[in-house]
Specification:
Layout lengths: L2 E4 L15 H15 L4 E5 L5 E7 L7 E2 L3 E9 L8 H15 L4 E7 L10 H6 L3 E6 L2 E7 L8 E2 L1 H5 L7 E5 L4 H17 L3 E5 L3 H4 L9 E5 L2 E4 L5 H9 L1
Parallel strand pairs: 5-6, 10-11
Antiparallel strand pairs: 1-2, 2-3, 3-5, 4-9, 6-8, 7-8, 10-12, 12-13
Length: 245
């Protein structure tokens, strides 16, 4: 199996797997360009499919975690016709080897309690590969793969466990890391205007803000009347249903 490493030098001409449109792709690419200097690594399959891994040193991850000397996987995604051929193992092994070569304590990644949820890694697969649950917040698990005997498990920051904010109505946090989030945030803004829905959009544009929000997810998180609701990207239908709860 062949893979391409996306870098600052080739990103403008390379396919990056997840965007649904050129505009989304541009925002995602601009986000990635700024992360390469933070140590971000992005590999994708040669085939133009959704098959890639994106990771970086944990201290530069845009999530509220305490994970000293770990690598954090932003996304490991294989879908469609490439599933079932070992791509997940190849990409994960590349990350593991990178962590070992850089003398990291381990690797961590977000997953979910119970059934698999959108935009979170498959818990069963991760456990099969040796990952353990390190911490839980809002139904989201922080899983880790220790690479040293004395590895200290990572954990969510206390702010991520509050799951509360002061704003009323619907509040959506998002970053440009996920093109799907940007697409549906735009749709939700249009819907709110047409239906007189109290909505506040918070676009996270820096690492410090991302590392200190009141829930475990930053690329997309929905609150209603101050309470964390979900990290699952909401369609128009779901947003309307949420306003009636």
């Amino acid at each position: 199996m062949e893979y391409i490493k996306i870098t600052k030098e080739n990103i403008d001409k390379e396919y990056i797997c997840c965007p649904m449109s050129e505009k989304q792709g541009t925002r995602k690419k601009e986000w990635l360009k700024k992360r390469f200097d933070d140590g971000l690594v992005f590999y994708r399959s040669v085939e133009r499919e959704k098959c890639f891994i994106e990771y970086l040193p944990s201290e530069n991850a845009w999530v509220p975690i305490e994970a000293d000397n770990y690598i954090f996987i932003d996304c490991l995604w294989i879908t469609g016709k490439l599933k079932g051929y070992g791509y997940s193992n190849d990409l994960l092994n590349e990350c593991i080897n990178d962590a070992i070569n850089n003398k990291k304590q381990g690797i961590c990644i977000l997953s979910s309690e119970g059934r698999k949820k959108e935009f979170l890694s498959d818990t069963k697969y991760l456990m099969h590969k040796g990952f353990k649950v390190a911490d839980v917040a809002g139904g989201i698990t922080l899983m880790y793969l220790p690479l040293t005997i004395d590895a200290i498990p990572p954990r969510f920051k206390e702010c991520a466990k509050t799951l509360e904010i002061s704003d009323k109505g619907i509040v959506i946090y998002y970053t440009d890391q996920c093109p799907f989030a940007y697409y549906w945030v735009q749709k939700t803004e249009e819907l709110a205007q047409k239906n007189n829905i109290l909505l506040k959009i918070i676009h996270i544009t820096d690492k410090q803000t991302a590392q200190n929000i009141s829930c475990p997810m930053t690329n997309y998180a929905v609150f209603k009347d101050g309470k964390f609701v979900t990290n699952i990207v909401q369609t128009d239908k779901k947003i309307l249903a949420l306003t009636k709860i």
